[in-house]
Amino acid sequence: MKMNILQLVVVFLFASCGTNKQKLNVPQDFNTDKIVVHKNEMQKIISKDKLASIFDISINKIEEHIEDNINGDGQFTVLYSWPTGKMKKIADGKFEIEEYHSISIGSVQQMSSDDFERKIGSNEGIQEQVNQMSKQENFNKEVGVAEAKYLAAYAKARKVEFLENGTAKAIWETPMNALHIYANDLAFTISTNLGEDEDYAKQKSIEITNAILNQ
Predict the structure, then answer these.
(1) pTM
(2) How do residues 18-31 score in pLDDT, each as one tens digit?
(3) Closest CA to 179 of 78, 80, 101, 107
(4) Is the CA virtual torsion 9, 12, 14, 15 positive or negative?
(5) What is the pLDDT of residues 82-133, one digit of tens each?
(6) Which sign does the torsion angle of CA 157, 120, 194, 67 carry?
């Protein structure tokens, strides 16, 4: 069964990736300690006040959710969400719900530059997820197959764009609209749900990154 799950994914894993390079405002002397010390309390990485300024919204509208129950080192995340003031249609337009935007910050990991490019810059990281999933002691076959199919489909659609600034690096990933940042052997990820405008999501992710690394 484990081999079947791996086979569902492996054929999609090494699709070509974009390499258009842009610069981030990341200081060369960035000290990773200020992030590492808060890796399990990511809400201290950036304040609500700063986010309110970046997105030009009232701080009172921003809701904060701390995810601290994910197993694995560096998997703690903070999620910020807020209403956009618009309604969103769902179920083929049959219903309307209040639209929310959100960003999350997490996945703090220490790694080498080569590992960052290998795991994030290609689909090899997805292969590792499948390998780890298939080795779990309480492996659920139905859940495992469904997850593997999802990862296979995502790997096929996944594209990355490399953004660089000296020794610091970042990778923009779609269709997730996530910015993976690497500086001084430290990596973390900003994931966004900011509507359909990918460029807007990217620019806001870069702005948040600069706020984090230059404070």
Answers:
(1) 0.78
(2) 444 446 777 777 78
(3) 107
(4) negative
(5) 999 999 888 888 889 999 999 999 888 889 989 998 888 877 776 776 666 6
(6) positive
